[in-house]
Amino acid sequence: MNITGDTKVTCIRKDKNYYWKSWKKFKECTAKEKEEFNLAQYPSNCILFDRDLNTTNIDVINKDYLNFIKKLNSKNILRFTADRSPHGYHILVPIQDFDKYDEDIKNEVKRILIKELECDESKISNKGVISIAGRPHFKDGNIYRQIAYIAGKNKLDDRYYNLAKDIVKAKKNMINQLNTDTDFTDYFEKDPFWKYIKTNKIPENSNRDMTIFPNLAIAAVKSGKSDEEIRSIIEPVIKENFPGKNYAEFYGWLKKARAGEINTYNPFQLNLWTKEYASKELYDLKPIELEEVEEIKDAKTKFKIYWDDNLDTAKNINTTWLIDKWLPCNDICFVAGKAASYKSTICLHFAYAISRGKLVFNKYKTLKKKVLYLNEENSANILLSMIDRVKRGLDIEDKDKNIAFSILEGIRLDKADDLKFLINFINKYNIEVLICDSFRRFIGFDENNATEINKIFNNLKYVRKHCNNLTIIILHHLKKDNGQYVYDLRDMLRGSSDIVNSADSIIGIKRKHGSNAIRIEHIKNRSGEELTNKIVLLDSGEKKDMAYLYESDKTADKTRLQSKPDKCAEEIIKYIKDNNITSFRRADLKGKINYSYDTITKALKLLDIDQSIISFGSTKNRQFKLADFI
Predict the structure, then answer these.
(1) Are 475 and 343 in contact (CB under 8 A)?
(2) pTM for the whole thing?
């Protein structure tokens, strides 16, 4: 192997119990060290094929080697370096333009070829190590010769790159699915990788800070534990089992995970690590294999493809608002709130405003469309009473054929026959808006099941596609909370996080018990600016028989809905701005902000969630500053 000045080298002699303390660049070695090293990291543009035959019989090894070279040549791999090893041989193959490949694709190419040629799969690592021919071997101290050296680089068949690219894409999809489906709450009690690092020494130079620490940080955040709890669990393990490492190095990764800079736990990566350094895989993951694709002849066109010169025939992609600034046409939109937050009343208000082309909240224009409202939540008496109040609030006295209802018919979105009925009805009567009240009543499975949720969204998209790009509105519930913590509203939707990920838009509703003031805001809006903290008042009239909904911009109405942490957060921002404070600690607010320590803590959490402030420093000495955009 060609050793350059930047090649990292070391010396390990297990037979003499002798080790260098660390790896060194060749150019930094002394003359004695240059004569002594017996291991080196091979170039990143190479693939290492390691054949361990569990025999020292030279005839068996030579025969296997000759057969292996034929296999290499059959793949147009003609240039390589081959060295003997204690029980076989290893072959280093340089690949033309290999360093231009994406790192994930490069590793997958290695895996494909190494597996095809039945070599040691632990040698996939991008920090691969090779023993130096002609020097004492690190295992037994014997000297093994070089078998062959043929200079040059090999041009890899494009099919390996293309196959690797497909596998990487499939793996990423699987990893995302695993992250969605996996409950990390019991990670520190049940996870096999955590159990391994908790009970085993993790050696230096094993890429632990770039593999273990980021994945561990992501899992720790997903577990829902506080920084203090995480530290109490992880710091003793790093101190005991990670020689040369400290908690501060891990904490840097934890901050990245908290900030969302890293968020995908990668069990495939950890399996590769344990396979290389522990000779086993800890996660039982179904391998992603490749399928040979046969040529399809005379296939019918399945998808419409646009060339650049006829793109103007595609549909205009500018947003058309069904409810101005709130709800685009053709969205799959969730309207989410807790029980008794007036979700049904507001969605009936939407339905009748759209069916008549009236204003929503006496402010936002609508497009007049036909509406189908599927009610699986309320009894006929309750629904009809709400409808009467909403119609009076919109000053609607007559009846028409622009809105239709089902009442507790048991319609399901996960049944093919029910979907077929809906599609036929919607198309027959030219329905353009479908409202489902409420989500949990239309499914027959646990709403936490990400796989089933994904299927439901596929069903919804199928209905939308076959019903002239229908707009779909679905009422949904928020989780219960105990009032002890401050939550990001996106994390409060009941069920799998795939609901938030897959919906086009989500409107959140919040109301204090006994109040007629309702806070409405976008939790998500792919098509435009997210509207936040809009206060809508419900006027029931002198006879208490109507539901007139209108938006208010009065400060007094806004404060009626604010919690103590909300009000405290506003005072913190005002105090920091008024006094031109560049950074501050929680303790600095004592005596300046007239709220309890607990309320200030919750207020800072609220400001952190909406990115009004950023935090830095250790947990004990955490500081805050205003975000740049404020």
Answers:
(1) yes
(2) 0.46
